[in-house]
Specification:
By secondary structure, the chain is of the alpha+beta class. Helices cover 27% and strands 27% of the residues. β2 and β3 form a beta hairpin.
Length: 188
């Protein structure tokens, strides 16, 4: 089966999503990953060269697509869209070949705690399901201690389906299924 890389979501106004550029966007991504509200949950407060290498590696493959998300023309978040079948998450639930996953970091502190995250997650996941008709669900695996993130995912239409023990964290598997798609854990 030849499954393509993940698509760039196109959620529509007021949101815009563009593929991250290894050189032009690295300083912004680096700054966001060093923010006190991001560091504990991403654990990627890396150096500029390491982030440059990370973005270049993602852009060269078909596993994940690094993106910047803007709201009303202002960049506010870093987004990675990935194909679950090429990710370590594939070993933690009965995934379908075209399932997509998302990692989201709202980098701008002033954009947290105001409902922006739930709106972003709802629009991004809806766009991904719309754009890839073979995708049966969009998933995420936020840290179980990240209550604001869990609440945002639930408000955006994701359902918590259980906990998974990853090497660096215990995560909650969040799933937004295409209507009519069975739950990945219960089969309902």
């Amino acid at each position: 089966m030849n499954v393509p890389g993940p698509p760039r979501p196109d959620p529509g106004a007021p949101w815009s999503v563009r593929v991250a550029r290894a050189e032009e966007d690295i300083a912004l991504i680096h700054r966001w990953m060093h923010q006190p509200h991001v560091v504990p949950f991403w654990q990627q407060d890396w150096s500029l060269p390491r982030w440059r290498e990370e973005i270049a590696t993602q852009l060269a493959g078909e596993h994940s697509l690094p993106c910047l998300v803007a709201r009303d023309g202002t960049d506010i978040a870093y987004l990675e869209v990935y194909r679950v079948l090429r990710d370590r998450l594939a070993g933690y639930y009965p995934h379908a070949p075209y399932d997509l996953g998302v990692h989201v970091a709202i980098g701008e502190w002033g954009c947290t705690g105001r409902g922006i995250g739930r709106s972003l997650l709802a629009e991004i996941s809806a766009a991904l399901l719309r754009q890839d008709g073979r995708c049966s669900r969009v998933v995420a695996e936020p840290d179980t201690t990240n209550q604001p993130s869990l609440a945002a995912f639930e408000a955006a239409g994701f359902r918590a389906t259980g906990e998974i023990a990853l090497p660096e964290k215990v995560a909650t598997l969040m799933v937004r299924a295409r209507p009519g798609t069975p739950d990945p854990v219960t089969g309902d």
